[in-house]
UniProtKB/TrEMBL annotation:
GO terms for cellular component: membrane. It is found in: Membrane. Keywords: Membrane, Transmembrane, Transmembrane helix. This is Sodium-independent anion transporter. It is a multi-pass membrane protein. The chain crosses the membrane at residues 48-67, 100-121, 133-152, 172-195, 202-220, 250-270, 329-348, 354-372, 384-410. PANTHER family: SULFATE TRANSPORTER. The keyword Membrane applies. It comes from the Bacteria.
Length: 563
C-alpha cells in the first residue's frame, strides 16, 4: 500500500499546488460554456466524430493538470495539430473510417513517446528554434486553410479534396448548389459570434449560439429543409483501449507525428511563457513536456486525437478568471456531465453552425495586427511569414511547419553568415574614432587599423573575415603596420575557420604587419589554443582589454597620434 499512498500524496500535492480560489471554479464553468462548442468544431477539423472533441477535454485535460508545470496552459484539442495530422492521414486512409480513427489514436500514442524522449533529453529548448515571425505566418496559413474548408459546411457543400487550392476552385464551381438556408444560419451565427465575443468576451456566446441552434433545429425540423445536422452522438465516458500499430503504420506515421510534436512543444512553450510572464511566474518547459506526454497518452488510450497547448483556450481561461489548473479540472468535470447526461440534444446541432464556430476560430488565427507590426519593423521577416503562410495554404500544413522550421534556422544562419563587420575610423567633422561599416580606404589612424567582427567565426563566414582585413590593408591611405582585432563578439571558432585565420595571420606577418587581438574572452582563448592560433599570433599579442591592445599598437607604430 506504500507506493499507492505515495502516489496519492504526490497527486494531492500537485492539486494543492495548483489550487486557487473559488474564482477558479467559476472560471472553469465559464470556460466549459465557451469551449465545449469549440472542441466540437476541432473534432470537425480532425475529421473525427464530434464526441471525440469532448474526449480531448476529459482525461487529457486532467493528465496535464496533474503533471504539467504551467498554472494557466489549457491542453486540449487544437486546430493547428488537428489540421496537421488530418491532412497527413487523409492521404493514407479514408477520413471517418474505423481505420482512420485507429491511426489517429496511434499518432497520439507516438506523440506521447516522442514527448517522453524529448523530456528525457531535456529538449524543452527546441521551442526556441521556431521564431515568432514564421509562427505567425504558419498560424495564418492554417487559419486560411481551416476557414476555407469550413465554408463547405457553412454552404451545405461537400468537399472531395483536402488541397486548399482545389477546395477554393470547388467553391466557385459549386456556387449553384449552395444551400441558401445553411448560408443564412451560418452567416447569422458568425455575426453573433464575432460581435458578441468582441463586445462581451466573458459571456458564453458560443454556448448560446449552440443552444439556440439546437432548439431551432429540433423545433423547426431544419433537417427537413436540407440543413445537415451532426446526427446521433454516442454518450457516456470513453472506452479505454491501447492502439497496437503495425511496423509499416509506424513508419508511415512518424513524419506526421514529428510535425505534431514540434508544434506541440513550440506552441505550448510559447503560450505558457506568455501567460507566466503576464503574472510574473516561472514555468518549467521540461515539466510541461511531461504533462503534454501524459495528456497525449491519455488521448490515445481513450480513443481521441492529439492534444496541444491551446493559445485560444488558454486566453479564454485567463479572461474568465482562471489562475490555476483547478479551473481546468472543473472544465473536465462539466464535460463528463455533458457526456453522461446531455449527449442527445447535440445530435440536432446544424453542421453549418459548427462550421461557423470553427470559421470564427480560424479567422482569429490570422493575426493581422502582428503581421502589420512585423512588416513595419522587419520587411524581410514579413516576407518569411508570408512564404510560410503560402506554403501551408498551397502545399499543406505538414510541409508548412517544416518550412517554418527551415526558415527560422535559415534566418539565424544568414545573420551569422553575413554578420556586421566594422572598422574604427575618424568621424569627418570631429575626428573622433567611431565604428563604421567596413569600406575600402578606411583606416583608424596612421599605420593602425582597428577591426571588429560581430559574430562567431565558422566555416561559412571566415572568408569574410579574411577578405575584410586584406581589403583594408591593400586600400589603406597609409602603410599598415599594425591591425587590432576587436574580438568582443567572437566566442567560438571551428576547425575550418581556424585554418583560415592561421593562413591570414601568416600572410600579414610575411608583409611585416603585426596583428593584435583585443577583448579576448577566456573561452575564445581556449579555442585559439586548441586550434593552434595562439602560437602563430603570439601570446604577447593577445589582450583581455581593447585599450591595452590599442596602446601596444600605438607603441609599435611610434606612438601614432589619434586623428
Amino acid at each position: 500500500m506504500a507506493p499507492l499512498s505515495g502516489i496519492k500524496k504526490w497527486f494531492g500535492q500537485r492539486i494543492t499546488k495548483k489550487s486557487g480560489s473559488w474564482s477558479d471554479m467559476l472560471a472553469g464553468l465559464s470556460l466549459a460554456s465557451m469551449n465545449i462548442p469549440q472542441v466540437l468544431g476541432y473534432a470537425r477539423i480532425a475529421e473525427m466524430p464530434a464526441v471525440c472533441g469532448l474526449y480531448t477535454v476529459l482525461f487529457p485535460l486532467v493528465a496535464f493538470a496533474l503533471f504539467g508545470s504551467s498554472r494557466h496552459l489549457v491542453v486540449a484539442a487544437d486546430s493547428a495539430t488537428a489540421a496537421i495530422f488530418s491532412s497527413g492521414l487523409s492521404e493514407i486512409v479514408s477520413p471517418g473510417s474505423a481505420r482512420y480513427m485507429e491511426l489517429v489514436s496511434t499518432v497520439a500514442l507516438l506523440n506521447a513517446g516522442f514527448l517522453l524522449v524529448a523530456r528525457l533529453c531535456r529538449l524543452g529548448f527546441l521551442a526556441d528554434f521556431l521564431s515568432r515571425t514564421v509562427l505567425v505566418g504558419f498560424l495564418a496559413g492554417v487559419g486560411v486553410q481551416v476557414g476555407l474548408s469550413m465554408l463547405y459546411d457553412m454552404t451545405g457543400l461537400v468537399s472531395n479534396s483536402h488541397n486548399t487550392l482545389v477546395q477554393a476552385v470547388g467553391l466557385f464551381q459549386g456556387f449553384g448548389q449552395m444551400q441558401g438556408l445553411s448560408i443564412a444560419i451560418a452567416s447569422l451565427s458568425c455575426v453573433v459570434l464575432l460581435a458578441g465575443t468582441r463586445q462581451k468576451p466573458h459571456w458564453p456566446i458560443g454556448l448560446c449560439v449552440v443552444l439556440v441552434s439546437i432548439f431551432c433545429s429540433w423545433g423547426l425540423n431544419l433537417q427537413h429543409y436540407d440543413v445537415a445536422i451532426l446526427g446521433s452522438i454516442r454518450g457516456g465516458l470513453p472506452a479505454f483501449s491501447v492502439p497496437v500499430p503495425g511496423w509499416h503504420d509506424v513508419l508511415a506515421l512518424l513524419p506526421i507525428s514529428a510535425s505534431c510534436v514540434f508544434v506541440i512543444i513550440a506552441q505550448s512553450a510559447a503560450t505558457s511563457r506568455a501567460f507566466a510572464n503576464m503574472f510574473h511566474e516561472h514555468v518549467d518547459e521540461n515539466a510541461d513536456i511531461v504533462g503534454l506526454c501524459a495528456a497525449n497518452a491519455a488521448a490515445a488510450l481513450t480513443g481521441t486525437f492529439t492534444v496541444n497547448g491551446s493559445p485560444t483556450q488558454t486566453a479564454m481561461a485567463v479572461q474568465a478568471g482562471a489562475r490555476s489548473q483547478k479551473a481546468q479540472l472543473v472544465f473536465a468535470a462539466v464535460t463528463a456531465c455533458v457526456l453522461l447526461f446531455f449527449p442527445a440534444p447535440l445530435q440536432y446541432l446544424p453542421r453549418c453552425v459548427l462550421g461557423a464556430i470553427v470559421f470564427c476560430v480560424a479567422i482569429r488565427m490570422i493575426d493581422i495586427q502582428a503581421l502589420v507590426h512585423i512588416r513595419d519593423e522587419s520587411p524581410g521577416e514579413f516576407r518569411l511569414a508570408l512564404v510560410t503562410a503560402a506554403t501551408v495554404v498551397s502545399v499543406g500544413v505538414e510541409q508548412g511547419i517544416f518550412i517554418a522550421i527551415a526558415l527560422s534556422l535559415f534566418r539565424h544562419v544568414r545573420h551569422s553568415y553575413m554578420p556586421h563587420t566594422l572598422v574604427m575610423a575618424p568621424e569627418p567633422t570631429t575626428g573622433i574614432l567611431e565604428a563604421q561599416a567596413v569600406a575600402p580606404g578606411e583606416q583608424s589612424m596612421p599605420g593602425i587599423i582597428i577591426y571588429r567582427f560581430c559574430a562567431d567565426l565558422f566555416y561559412a563566414n571566415c572568408n569574410l573575415f579574411t577578405d575584410d582585413i586584406m581589403e583594408l590593408v591593400s586600400s589603406a591611405p597609409n602603410p599598415v603596420k599594425c591591425i587590432v582585432v576587436d574580438c568582443s563578439a567572437i566566442t567560438d571558432i571551428d576547425y575550418s575557420a581556424a585554418q583560415v585565420v592561421r593562413d591570414v595571420l601568416q600572410q600579414l606577418h610575411a608583409r611585416g604587419i603585426t596583428v593584435l587581438f583585443g577583448r579576448v574572452a577566456p573561452f575564445f582563448l581556449k579555442d585559439m589554443d586548441r586550434h593552434h592560433i595562439t602560437p602563430v599570433l603570439g601570446k604577447e599579442n593577445i589582450y583581455m582589454q581593447l585599450h591595452t591592445a590599442l596602446a601596444s599598437a600605438r607603441k609599435l607604430c611610434g606612438d601614432a597620434k589619434v586623428l
